[in-house]
Amino acid sequence: MLTKKGPFADTREIIESSGEKSIFPPYLLKHQDLTRPPKSANRINQKKLINTINYIHFTGGQVWVHLKDPGYEEDIFVSAHPEPCTGKTITCQWSKKNTTSFEHHRFLNLVIDDGLSAILVPAKLLNVNKDRFTIHIPDTSYVLRKRQARRYTCHEVTAELHQSGFLASGSLLDFSFLSFRIRVTPDFGGSFHWLNPDEPLIVNLYRDQKIIFSGSCRFIHQTGNMSVKEIVVAPLAEQFKRFRGRKIRSPRTQLAPSSSISFEHPFSKERVQRDLHDISVTGFSVHERDGECVLVPGMIIHKLNINYSGTLAMPCIAQVVFRRKEKKGAFRCGLVILDMDVTTYGKLSNILGNVVDPHVHVSDEINMDALWKFFFESGFIYPKKYNLIQPHRKDLKETYRKLYQDSPEIAAHMTYQENGQIYGHVSMVKAYERSWMVHHLAARPVPGTRKHTGLPLLKQIIHYFEGFYRLPAFKMDHWICYYRPSTRFMDLFFGDFARHLRNPRACSLDLFAYKDYPTAYPQGQLPDGWLLREYSATDSWELEQFYRNHSGGLLLNVLCPEYEHSDDETLEETYKRHGLIRRMKIYSLIHTQKLKAVLVVNQSDLGLNLSELLNGIKIIITDSASLPWDVLSSAVTRLTEVYDVEKIPLLIYPHSYLENKDISYEKQYLMFIMDMQYGKEFLDYLKGRLKAKIRFLIKFLIKRYLTK
């Protein structure tokens, strides 16, 4: 249970500017005569009261003493700390915060405040001195309800208050789900005269220099002087949208067995646990009862665990986005997942995917023999490709074991399985610094049935995509997919979306020519006037000019990101930590000080991508007319010495270059690149296409049934 704030610590409580004493103004007693509790007040017996007092002692809490000042006949409240109680008497020590001696004040009542209501104890004073006092506990005490919401003491929370140029800073003293009480002083040159109580304020709260709340609040009450004030404000928003709305929401699931969330409250540092009502890959909801509400819309929880069946804890960063009153004494609170590491997201997706379809498995342990069998039976590894990789099959098996079992930071996969056999598979690898690439996507029917695995697999891909593209932990700015133009299934969803969006800066399609190139060619000298050197910033303007006018897409954003000097671990370092290889180096081919081509040398473990698109050279030709093939070939040959295979693929853009030079090539590849800022549009499009596909299948089956 959370620590509660002292007696009736509402908007009318006065805290002296020193912060050492808390007293009540006399007008409080106009609303409730504490010496004569109403007949309607609930009662608490002596035994239960003693247990409550001992709990306060155990937790290091405090009680409040209602006294009468002998000089001015004012009612005041003073804090004290109870000692263990075993009988009908209790001894309390005056709080060391009190700077005044109270042994000559008249004792009226003992008050125990739990943050929501107060227990009035009309005790009899037995003895008192400057250090402590002893009272006799009556047979009956009274419970007085005073607040709409329970208040909780806060610890080490920094507060900032903004209003149209006025800035004050300080700390959060206590909170309820309805309001905050903050102690602030104006920043340099400011004045509380600038604060307009009739206008909203922006309140920012921090712990350990991390934002834990930011929102617009309504002014309620203030006390203090022009140097320091205690201000009570109420958050205005009970609901807001953290992300843009979607036409079709991700499905919410109620887990069985029941699960929960637990976290250290960012305001009070106390542990909180709530039963989980429903959950998706993007967020979840819980219920709170009146009197235990601690979830404030806008609050960010940096360390929250989703506890599945009491056996699996899935940590994440979450934010409260709404609070709704559903029935008497109950509220429903929604939280959105702001971030989650890749491994944990895979576990959550796997749990939720299995609820929808038990045959879907997301980033869990996979039978590698079954996976290789699927690659061969689905035709992904065809004879020519196998002839290329078969001399390295031992290394290839080890690479895939690392990818699928040891490297969740750089690889993710999803399978459709029955009885251990794989009938659908999709996987991704982190191909560039902040870009993930669809590595493989294929599905085949379950033998002996008419069961199609493509649609259920695609449905789960959509649900998986819906959560991960927004998570900072994935470091994903772009999504890449290579596919042959003749592959109708891929073009139906990826290509059609790019053409539907008609914005190459959001989603682009670039066509490359694919050509196998032997690495055993002897190196020759480039002709006079030609130079091959490392790519530099001086080449970027010419490259950008060419690409912007020829394509206008996102290729250069992927290959030459602006944040390459980030302090984060590089992609090469991440792969190396997992025992894998991923390198990229860019070269410029120059003739008479003019850029003619850019060559991107990609290196990876053999078979990291079975089409070797990450283990070859990508070539962007900026001046096709004046670049002879033999010169380009000589430049490529000088760069192949880093490879230890017989052939590497060349991906050449524009694809028409080889045709114009009358050079043969094997095939073409479309490179789909999407800016993840348009992930919502992509999801809406895919969901619409999926619904249309399902409707078509239903109509087809009905028509066939009626025909029979």
Top keywords for this entry?
elongated; alpha+beta; 13 helices; 12-stranded mixed sheet; 708 residues; 5 domains; Thrombin, subunit H; Pnp Oxidase, Chain A; 9-stranded antiparallel sheet
Structure explained in plain terms:
- The chain has 708 residues and is an alpha+beta fold.
- It folds into 5 domains: 14-145, Pnp Oxidase, Chain A; 152-235, predicted glycosyltransferase like domains (Thrombin, subunit H, Beta Barrel); 260-339, Beta Barrel (Thrombin, subunit H); 344-476, Aminopeptidase (3-Layer(aba) Sandwich), CATH 3.40.630; 501-563 and 570-677, Aminopeptidase (3-Layer(aba) Sandwich), CATH 3.40.630.
- 22% of the residues lie in helices and 37% in strands.
- The protein is built from 13 helices and 36 strands.
- A 12-stranded mixed beta sheet has the order 25-26-27-28-29-36-30-35-34-33-32-31, sandwiched between helices. The protein has a 9-stranded antiparallel beta sheet with strand order 3-11-8-7-4-5-6-10-9.
- The longest helix has 29 residues, at 679-707.
- The two termini are 66 Å apart.
Quick synopsis:
By secondary structure, the chain is an alpha+beta fold. Helices cover 22% and strands 37% of the residues.
Shape: elongated
- Provide the β-strand percentage band: 35-45%
Main β-sheet description: 12 strands, mixed
CATH class of the largest domain, anyone?
Alpha Beta
Average pLDDT over all residues: 85
> Please, how many helices?
13
